[in-house]
Design goal:
- This protein has about 160 residues and is mainly α.
- It has a single domain, classed as UraD-like, CATH 1.10.3330.
- It has 9 helices and no strands.
- It has helices at about 5-10, 20-25, 30-40, 45-55, 60-65, 70-80, 85-105, 115-125, 130-155.
- α7 packs parallel to α8.
Length: about 160
């Protein structure tokens, strides 16, 4: 596949960050692409890495309510039932999103596949207790998990 075809196919794997696909377009099979993308993110300049983290939407946040998420994020949040929150759950998500951003300066990121909104709220509450270094490392591990799941979903 050409570079442009590769970027068109894989450019959204890492949330709103096509630079990752651009960096690895000749990586080969799924494992090669996944590993190369992970390495591209892990070795990118700090500013690019933080831009990637901040590109992720709040869970059950304003962008979701306005229908402004990427197609992948919309499907992922819906799979966890975040589009069916009760008013109380929605209020808790909003409060936790605000508290998390105030504490860490970036959105709470979790690979939601296989989780319920109750599982996510539990993780949210627990991870708010982390220190900034631990939480940033956790956010990147979650980002890599999300990317791998998205890559697998694209393969026949």
């Amino acid at each position: 596949m050409t570079r442009d075809e590769f970027i068109a196919r894989y450019g959204a794997i890492y949330e709103d960050s096509p630079w990752v696909a651009e960096a690895v377009w000749e990586a080969g099979d799924l494992d090669g692409v996944a590993g190369a993308m992970r390495a591209a993110v892990d070795t990118a300049p700090e500013a690019a890495r933080m831009e990637l983290v901040r590109a992720h939407p709040d869970l059950a946040g304003k962008a979701a309510l306005a229908g402004a998420l990427t197609a992948d994020s919309t499907a992922e949040q819906a799979s966890a039932g975040l589009d069916r929150c009760s008013p109380e759950e929605l209020a808790e998500f909003h409060a936790l999103n605000s508290a998390y951003r105030r504490k860490f300066g970036f959105p709470f990121i979790v690979a939601v596949k296989g989780l319920t909104r109750h599982d996510i709220l539990e993780q949210f509450r627990h991870r708010l207790e982390n220190d900034a270094t631990t939480e940033l490392a956790t956010a990147f591990e979650q980002i890599h998990t999300i990317a791998r799941l998205r890559l697998e979903a694209l393969e026949p």
